[in-house]
Design a protein that fits this description.
The complex is a heterodimer of chains A (121) and B (596). By secondary structure, chain A is an alpha+beta fold. In chain A, strands 2-1-3-4 form a four-stranded mixed sheet. In chain A, 44% of the residues lie in helices and 18% in strands. Chain B is 39% helix and 15% strand. In chain B, the strands form six sheets. Chain B has a five-stranded mixed sheet with strand order 12-11-15-13-14. Chain B has a four-stranded mixed sheet with strand order 2-1-3-4, covered by helices on one side. Chain B has a four-stranded parallel sheet with strand order 9-8-7-10, with helices on both faces. In chain B, helix 2 crosses helix 3, helix 19 runs antiparallel to helix 21 and helix 21 packs across helix 22. The N and C termini of chain B lie far apart (70 Å). In chain B, 53% of the residues are buried. The chains are: A alpha+beta (121), B alpha/beta (596). The interface between A and B is large, with 37 and 41 residues. The structure holds flavin mononucleotide (FMN) and FE2/S2 (inorganic) cluster. FE2/S2 (inorganic) cluster binds next to helix 1 of chain B.
């Protein structure tokens, strides 16, 4: 070990690998992963979300799964929880999921066209 | 790019390992492959979670789902339901992690909520065998800061200001000890870590070393810098194979990364560490005996002064601290002495780890801020006494400590308060006793231990403790005389005054404190020949109560044929013949036979 900088670099790299072990993050993305979700293609959506969150080093975002969210015909579905508010995205694909991370999670702009509200209109 | 979205933490502490956590680990690897989740889920082996009694323990993040008593058969279900489909398997959660239908994450469980984790902060969070994980949680930052930004005296001053006191039992101010060793003059100086941990039932130090070995390595290097030593020894008992193993791995990694070795952080400070295995004698935890043992001699104490700070290992100035003491050091350096003082009380700042055991629902390892009351630890964190039994006493300080009663439940846990109540902090054993424990027998248990462990070098300890044990045996066997209490007290005072080391000086404490707080139990053993708790066999009688239905089952199992009575009539036991084997008690279909 030659310097504090060297240590800081190792730390930065290692931190990304352990940030999952923190159960109180600010933003939670919950993907519906019951049989309906999985068969509609929720797995690639989940993977895309995790990958995007990791790539952008969003340490305060948790991606988890849940069972059936209840509107099986609109699967894959995920919900974004932040400050007690919930936004539900429906008919998701990996690409749309990446778009949501970029616009909603990073920039704070809800992607209205994909939300359940927009769909049901 | 990483797809990992979930971490499965499997406890690799001694408790869970012995209840099979390693085969659970293997099974998870297999199941995760089966469901094709290798890229998404990472399995991590950690140190002890503290709730060993509920082991094997598995925690799944990001949810923080806390699974207890996990069996190999459960793994497939957790993988399929939770990891694959995202549904936490409620039936397999720790029961206090489920309130009605609401799932609580590991940090919200009552057992952990009241705790304050400083020493154990990484235990059950990181993989102790991967140095990068330690670094991710600020590892080796304190060492870097110390060697590049602080003078030796500044480090000593920071520890002094923190008010940290030795966690190995004595509670001596750590900063002062560092100052003495810093000021002492010698061609060479040494840093040593006491990981002998010989108190029966104690496993705090073992858990720290198993769960966070780098914290000790880092702290010892900091101590080396502060006092001007370039070499350290960790003295650990060979009976802790997992801890030894993790320490060796950690030390190897630290040397490879260069945080231990020459020119640390590019400065001219160099530090080397060596592990020394002890053979597991209680007396080798005493500092001078430990030093003798490190030097390669038989572990027997030597008279003090000179103190190790002046003449320790190989007659050189030596700084000796306990594992838990060291585990606080990096935190104090990183967060500052003021921060440390915000935890605990004025004279006992910081936290203390206790090994909670005996008659208590949540046995395990707990870390509490000093100043918490005994009641909070026993009832709020420990979950109270099992089976609705009545609390009788709490033993702290192990073989050197004493027993406190219900009168003391609202007393604060601090070094000085426990001593003033007639017990002591000790290294952190806390054994809860209920109505079924006999206090004379408890005193005898601890004295039996010290008689066994006395090294034999000084007469008061070698002979005196044996005489005390004989008196206790006599009382427990119903041959006691009332004068025996005074004899015990007299011997106790003399041994305390004249023994060579702490082992003998404190050995009488369990006897004195039980005489003080439970004199009536001694008296009833001696005068009424009775053991109310039903422990001292010689004082008990097997009797048949009027619940007897005269089924004659007992007469058939009695090996000495001492039960008589006609069918359908109450039976009686001939007390002169009865050998109290208890066979009839087990056989009786209506629980009519009792031992009292
Ligand atoms: C019989 C006996 C056994 C001891 N066992 C231990 C032990 O297992 N671990 C320990 O750290 N200190 C033990 N001590 C206390 C040590 O002598 C010493 O005070 C302590 O290691 C100093 O470290 P500290 O100031 O950090 O507490 C024991 C003392 C006696 C008298
Ligand atoms: S060993 Fe697993 S919780 Fe203690």
């Amino acid at each position: 070990m030659k310097s504090l900088d060297e240590l800081a670099k190792i730390r930065e790299k290692a931190l990304k690998k352990v940030s999952t072990r923190n159960s109180d993050k600010k933003i939670r993305i919950v993907v519906g992963m019951a049989t309906c979700g999985i068969s509609a293609g929720a797995r690639p959506v989940l993977n895309a979300l995790v990958e995007e969150v990791n790539k952008r080093e969003l340490v305060d975002v948790e991606v988890t799964q849940t069972g059936c969210i209840g509107v099986c015909r609109l699967e894959p579905i995920f919900e974004v929880y932040q400050n007690d508010e919930k936004v539900t995205y429906v008919n998701m694909t990996a690409e749309k999921a990446r778009e949501v991370v970029a616009n909603h999670i990073v920039n704070g702009n809800v992607v209205l066209k994909y939300t359940i509200g927009a769909y049901e209109k | 790019m990483s797809l990992v979205r979930s971490h499965v933490l499997i406890c690799g502490g001694t408790g869970c390992t012995s209840s099979g956590s390693m085969s659970i680990h293997e099974k998870f690897e297999v199941c995760i492959k089966k469901f094709g989740l290798e890229k998404e889920v990472k399995v991590v082996k950690t140190g002890c979670f503290g709730l060993c009694e509920a082991g094997p323990i598995v925690v799944v993040y990001p949810e923080g789902a806390f699974y207890s008593h996990v069996k190999v058969e459960d793994v497939e279900r957790i993988t399929e339901e939770h990891l694959y489909k995202g549904r936490i398997v409620k039936e397999l959660l720790f029961k206090q992690a489920l309130e009605g239908d609401v799932i609580k994450s590991v940090n919200e469980v009552q057992f952990y909520k009241k705790q304050k984790r400083v020493v154990l902060k990484n235990c059950g969070i990181i993989n102790p065998e991967v140095i990068e994980e330690y670094i991710a949680f600020d590892g080796y930052k304190a060492l870097g800061k110390v060697v590049t930004e602080m003078t030796q005296q500044e480090v000593v001053d920071e520890i002094k200001k923190s008010g940290l006191r030795g966690r190995g039992g004595g509670g001596f101010p750590t900063g002062l000890k560092w100052q003495f060793t810093h000021d002492a003059i010698g061609e060479e100086k040494y840093v040593a870590c006491n990981a002998d941990e010989g108190d029966p039932g104690a496993f705090m130090d073992r858990s720290v070393l198993e769960g966070d070995p780098h914290a000790i390595i880092e702290a010892m290097a900091i101590a080396g810098y502060a006092i001007g030593a370039s070499k350290g020894f960790i003295y650990i008992r060979a009976e802790y194979p997992i801890a030894v193993d993790r320490l060796e791995i950690a030390l190897k990694q630290a040397k490879e990364l260069g945080v231990i070795g020459d020119n640390i952080f590019g400065t001219d400070f160099s530090f080397d560490l060596e592990i020394r295995l002890g053979a597991g004698a209680f007396v080798c935890g005493e500092e001078t005996a430990l030093i003798e043992s490190i030097e390669g001699r038989r572990g027997m104490p030597r008279p003090r002064p000179p103190f190790p700070a002046n003449k320790g290992i190989f007659q050189m100035p030596t700084l000796l601290n306990n594992v838990e003491t060291y585990a606080n050091i990096t935190q104090i350096i990183l967060n500052g002495a003021e921060w440390f003082r915000t935890i605990g009380t004025e004279k006992s700042p910081g936290t203390k780890v206790f090994a909670l055991g005996g008659k208590i629902n949540n046995t395990g390892l707990v870390e509490i801020p000093m100043g918490m009351t005994l009641r909070e630890v026993i009832y709020d964190i420990g979950g109270g006494i099992p089976d609705g039994k009545a609390f009788k006493a709490v033993q702290t300080g192990g073989p050197s400590g004493g027993c406190l009663t219900y009168k003391h439940l609202d007393e604060q846990i601090t070094y000085d308060n426990l001593v003033s109540l007639g017990s002591m902090m000790g290294s952190g054993g806390m054994i809860v006793l209920d109505e079924d424990n006999c206090m004379v027998d408890v005193a005898r248990f601890f004295l039996d231990f010290t008689v066994d462990e006395s090294c034999g070098k000084c007469t008061p300890c070698r002979e005196g403790t044996k005489r005390m044990l004989e008196l206790l045996n006599k009382i427990c066997e119903g041959r006691g005389e009332i004068e025996d209490i005074a004899r015990l007290e007299n011997l106790a005072v003399n041994i305390k005054d004249s023994a060579l080391c702490g082992l003998g000086q404190t050995a009488p404490n369990p006897v004195l404190s039980t005489i003080k707080n439970f004199r009536h139990e001694y008296i009833s053993h001696i005068e009424d020949k009775k053991c109310e708790a039903g422990v001292c066999k010689a004082l008990l009688k097997v009797t048949i109560t009027d619940k007897c239905i005269g089924c004659t089952a007992c007469t058939k199992v009695c090996p000495v044929d001492c039960i008589s009575g006609n069918r359908k009539e109450m039976h009686v036991i001939d007390q002169n013949l009865c050998i109290k084997c208890g066979a009839c008690i087990e056989k009786c279909p209506v629980n009519a036979i009792i031992l009292k």
